Amino acid sequence: MSDPLLQVDRLDAFYGDLQVLWTIQLGIGTGEIAALIGGNGAGKTTLLRSIVGLHRNRTGSIRFQGEEISSLPPHSLIYRGLAEVPDERGIFPDLTVEKNLLVGAFSLKDSRARREALHWIYQVFPILEERRSFLARSLSGGEQQMLALGKGMITRPTLLLLDEPSSGLSPLMVSRLMDHIRRIHQEGTTIFLVEQNVRHALRIAHQAFVMENGRIVLQGPADRLSEDPRVKKAYLGR
Amino acid sequence: MTRLDLRLCAVSLLLILIFPLVVKDDYLIHLLILTALFAQSAAYWNLLDGYLGLIHFGYAAYIGIGAYTSALSAMHLGLPLPLCMLLGGLLSGILGVLLIIPCLRMVTFSTAIVTLAFGEIARIAASSWTTLTKGEMGLWGIPPLFASQSKLLFFYVGFGLLLVGSVLLKILLRSRLGLAVVAIREDEIAAFTSGIEINRIKLLISGISCFVAGVMGAFYAHYILTITPGLFSLGYTIQIMAMSMFGGKGTFLGPILGAFALIFLGEGFRFMEDYRMLIYGLLIIGVVMAFPTGLVGGINRLKKRIPSKR
Amino acid sequence: MLLQQIINGFVIGAIYSVVGVGFTLIFGIMRILNFAYGEFYMLASYAAFVAYSEFHLPLWLILLLTMTVLFAIGALTERGLVKPVRERTADWSVPVIMVTLGLQIVLQNVVLLVAGGTYRGVSAYLMGTLDLEWFVISYERLMILGVSAGLLLGTWLLIQKTKLGLAMLAVSQNREGAVLSGIPLQRVYTLSFGLSAALVAIPGVLLMPLLYVYPTVGQVPIMKAFAVTLLGGMGNIEGAILGGIILGVSETMASAYLSSLIKDGVAFAFMILILLFYPAGIGPYFQQIRQKVIRP
C-alpha cells in the first residue's frame, strides 16, 4: 500500500490548558473519500483546523504527500494542493459570486489560469454562473454552500477537507450536495469529509472514522462501519 | 476571594487610610485624588464596554454633565452639596439611558459614532451656552465640598467613593445581572434565547455607568472648583479607555491598575521635563508588547509561574 | 451662493474622503483603530513644509515623495510594532490599538522636541482664482479637489480591479476564508498599513498652507477620519468616499448658514440623523442600491 496522502500521528490539541484532542492517529489514501463522523463537540472541527494550521496549539505530526506541514503557515497549504471548506463556509458576503470564486483561485499562477478555472467551475455549477454578479450574502443557503464548494475546489486540489457541508441544508439539497462531492472526487480530488449527517457520509465514503470526546474510537471501511451495531445505535437511530 | 486577595485588600485599605497622614506632599495627594477619580470612571466605563460590550466614545461627556449640573445647582439653587452631586449623577444617568435607546437597534459601531457625536455635541453645547456655563472661560467659584484647605478630606472621600463603587461593582458582577451582562457580550443571540432581556440590561447598565460618571464629575467640580468644557472632550474618554485597556479590559482590577499605572508613569518622568511624554509613549509601547493582555493578564501569567503553597 | 457653498463643501469633502478611506481601510482589514493615523498626516505636513520652503521642490514632486516616504513608514510601523504584538496573543485588536496610542504620543513628542512647537506654514501652493459666472474657486482649491478625486479614483481602482485589492477585500470580509485561499495575511497587513499612511499623506501635503504645521496638527484629521469611517460603515471604502463628501458639504453649509462655531456640532448631529435611518452607515445602503440596479 502506497504512502497515505495525509497522515496524522499522535496529534494532541489544546485550548489554553484544556486538552481537547487526544492522540489522534489517522491516514487517508490518495483517491479515496474518507469520512469523519461524531456528535456535537466531539472535536471534529478542531481536528480539521489543527490539520490546516488555523488552530496552532497542538503537538504531533501532520504529513501531507510525505511532507511535514504542521509548522507551515496556513496560507501556504493551498499552494501544496490542500484546500479546506470550513464549517462557516469561508465565503465573502459582500463580494460577488464571481469574485468569491476568483479569490478561491488566488493561488493559481496567472490570470489566464484563473479565468480557465472559473470557466470550469461554471460548467460544474451552472447556477453559479447564472448568479455570478450577485453578492454572496444574497444567495440562498444551498447556493451559498455551492459557492463554498466551488471556491474550495476551483484549484483542483489534491486533497479537499470539508467541514460539515450539509449543515443548514434541506434533505433534497443534501443529496445534491453528495452528488457534487462525488463529482469533485471523480475529477481527481481526494476528499476528507467531516459530517453530522452520518447516513449520507457513510454511504459516500470508502473509509470512515468515528470521533467521541476528542478521540477516534472507531475506524475502518465505511460499509463495515455502517453495519456496526454501536454506530447504528448511536448515529443511525436503529 | 483567596486568602492572599483578602490580605492584599486589607493592606491597601490600611495604606489608603494612613497615607495622607504620613506623606505630606500636597501634590502627590492631589495626584492620587485625581487617580481615584479616573480609576472609578475607568472601572465603570469598563463595565459598559469591557463587560457588556457596548462601545461608548462619549463617556467623558457624562463626567462633564455631572460636574456642571452639580456646580450650577450649588451656585444657583443653593442646594446642599451632596444633593447636588446626586443630581449630577442622576442627570448623567438619565441622559445616558436616553442616548442608548436609539442605539439599541443599531450595529455596534454605530453606537460608537452616536456616542462620539453626543460627546462632541455636549462639548460644543457647553462651550456655546455661555449664559449658563460661561463657555470656554470656564465656570469658577464653585463651592467646595469641604471648606478646609487641607486635601485630607477630599482624599478620603475620593478613595471612599472608589472603594464603595468597587464593592458595588463587584457585587453587581457576581450577581445574576453580572452573568447576564457577560453573556450578552459573549453571544447576544444565545443570551437572548436564554431569556435574557438584552435591551433592558443595556439600558440599566448604561444608566448605572453614566450615573457613576456624573457623580465623579460632580466630585471633581467641588474639588477643583473650576471647570471648563474641555471636560467633555474625546481626549478624556480616550484616556479612560486607555487606562481600562492598559490594565486589562473586561477585568475587575484592570481599570484601576491601569489608571494608577498610566498616571504615575506619566508623572514619574516629570523630572525629565521635555522628554517626559516621549518616555511615557515609549513605555506604553513597551508594556503593551510585554503584556499584550493588559497588566492584569500579565500578572496572571506571572502568578501561574509561582508554585502555590499547599 | 448655494452652489458656491456646495462647491466649497465638495473640496473639503474630497479631503475628508481621502482621510476617511485610509482609516477605514485599516479598520476593515485589521479591525483596529490606528491612533497614530493623525501623526502620519502631521509628518507629511512637516515634510511638505521643509520640501517647499527649504528646497523649493515642485508640488507634484512633494506629493510623490511624501507618499512614498509615508508608505514606508506605515509599512515599517506594521512590521516593527504591530506584528510583534499580533503574534504574542490571539485577541490582538486591543493591544494593537494601545500600541498605536503609544506611537502617537512618541511621534508627537519627537517632532515637538526636534522641531519645536511653533506654528509654521506657507501661504499657498497656487495663487489666483477661477472666476466663473456661477461660482468662484481658487486654483488652490481646484487643485486640492482634483488631486483628491484622482487619489480616490486610484484607490477605488486598486481595490476593485487588482489582485491585491481583491485580497484586501477578502481579508476584510472573512479572514479565514482568505487564508485558506492562499492569501498571505502578513503581506496584506503590511501593504495596507503602508497604503493607509500614503493616503493620509496627501491631505497632509495639500492642507499644509491651510492648517499650518505644528506637532499636534494631527488631531484634526483623525477626528474627521473617525467620523467619516463610522458614517460610511466601518471598513466600507465606498461608504467612506460618500461619507466624506456628505460630511464636508454639511459642515460647509452649517458654517455658511448657521454659525462657524457650531459647524462641528451640526455635522455630528447630521450624522446621528443619518445613522438613525441607516444604522449600518450609508455604505451598505449604497451597496443595496447598486445590487437592485444589477438585479431588479
Q: Strand order, main sheet of chain B: write it out.
A: 1-2
Secondary structure tally, helices of chain C: 13
DSSP strand count of chain B? 2
What share of the residues of chain B lie within helices? over 70%
Largest sheet of chain B: 2 strands, antiparallel
Residue fraction in strands of chain C: under 5%
| Level-1 CATH class name of chain C | Mainly Alpha
Shape of chain B: globular
Which parts of chain B are unreliable, with pLDDT below 50 for 5 consecutive residues or more?
none
Form type of chain C: globular
Average pLDDT level of chain C: 88
Structure description:
- The complex is a heterotrimer of chains A (238), B (310) and C (296).
- Chain A is α/β, with parallel strands linked by helices.
- Chain A has helices at 44-52, 97-104, 111-124, 126-130, 141-153, 171-186, 198-204, 222-227, 229-235; strands at residues 6-15, 18-28, 33-38, 58-64, 67-68, 82-85, 159-163, 190-195, 207-212, 215-221.
- Chain A has two domains: 1-81 and 158-238, Rossmann fold (3-Layer(aba) Sandwich); 90-156, no CATH class.
- Chain A has nine helices and ten strands.
- The longest helix of chain A has 16 residues, at 171-186.
- The N and C termini of chain A lie far apart (35 Å).
- Chain B is 76% helix and 1% strand.
- In chain B, helix 3 (59-77) packs antiparallel against helix 4 and helix 3 crosses helix 10 (198-224).
- The radius of gyration of chain B is 20 Å and the shape is globular.
- The mean pLDDT of chain B is 84.
- Chain C has a single domain (2-294), classed as ABC transporter involved in vitamin B12 uptake, BtuC.
- In chain C, 77% of the residues lie in helices and 2% in strands.
- Chain C is globular.
- Chains in contact: A-C, B-C.
- At the B-C interface, helix 5, helix 11 and helix 13 of B face helix 3, helix 4, helix 10 and helix 12 of C.
